[in-house]
Design a protein that fits this description.
It contains three helices and six strands; from the N terminus they run H-E-E-E-E-H-E-E-H. The protein has helices at about 1-10, 35-45, 70-85, and strands spanning about 15, 20, 25, 30, 50-55, 55-60. A hairpin with a 2-residue loop joins strand 5 (about 50-55) and strand 6 (about 55-60). Helix 1 (about 1-10) runs parallel beside helix 3.
């Protein structure tokens, strides 16, 4: 989750999950400011990335069997979505 949060933050996402010293969740919830989260969630789904999405944000639940490459694919898909929709970070 640390890798995912770092990548999403670098893509301009706001992280809603608790991320403090000694406390973090295995689930990462985020939103892109000014962007419809369900639209982002559907775009990720078209890329084969499984998330749960609602108007308030997108939830990603990585597990121990997910690879760094898969986590990076989520971040890359978010960056591509932002670029394609001309959203500024």
């Amino acid at each position: 989750t640390d890798r995912l949060v770092e990548g999403l933050s670098s893509a301009g996402a706001e992280i809603a999950s608790i991320r403090s010293d000694g406390e973090s969740s295995g689930i990462v919830t985020f939103a892109l400011p000014g962007v419809d989260s369900p639209a982002v969630g559907r775009a990720l789904q078209r890329e084969g990335i499984v998330t749960t999405y609602r108007p308030g944000g997108i939830r990603v639940a990585p597990h121990g069997y997910n690879t760094a490459k898969e986590i990076d694919a989520v971040v890359d898909a978010i960056k591509s979505y932002r670029k394609a929709t001309a959203c500024s970070p």
